[in-house]
Amino acid sequence: MTTLPTSPAPATLREPAISRLLFGDPRLAPLWLILRVYVGYEWLIAGWGKITNPAGVWVGEKAGTAVSGFLTGALAKTGGDHPDVQGWYGWFLQHVALPNAAAFSYLVAYGEVLVGVALIVGLFTGIAAFFGGVMNASYLLAGTVSTNPLLFILATWLVLGWRVAGWWGLDRWVLARFGVSEHPAAAPAELASPRRPGDAVR
């Protein structure tokens, strides 16, 4: 009788204790709250300023005006031996973003507000931080520094710590609905009534 070869058990990688402490321990939730609200506030005021701009160059009749000026300035940085804006990104700005400046204007303005609100209330924190980081990277690729390096670093940390970053926020309840974390108001039955020696195993 031929014995079929058994496949080896899949390898598992253990999470280091320092990683569990930093990115998965609710005791550090207050620290993550400070980082999350700071980044969210920066995005919220930036986006709100664009939406409420009285000239309407971001949202309104003149939507796209500000974006067109920004993109034109970025394209001017594509020349030289060591350009601030790489050629491939310059191609994207010229052939994709600039012809659709009005759409990108709305996308940026409302995207910044949505990311800001989501981070402040702690709703889908990891996803919000990811899209915030994408916007930071877009600004950096376009040759704009400002606060983008700092916010990009903090956004990366928030993505890594998504399990606990929204613990003091709506994620504490929302993520439990998706089975990502335990609902704070209900402990598992196994923890509520620990098994005693001699109990039947089910």
UniProtKB/TrEMBL annotation:
Alphabetized UniProt keyword annotations: Membrane, Transmembrane, Transmembrane helix
Major place of residence: membrane
Segments traversing the membrane: 107-131, 151-170
Membrane topology type: Multi-pass membrane protein
Any one Gene Ontology cellular component term annotated for this protein: membrane
Entry's localization field: Membrane
Matching InterPro entries: DoxX
Listed name of the protein: DoxX
Origin species: Deinococcus marmoris
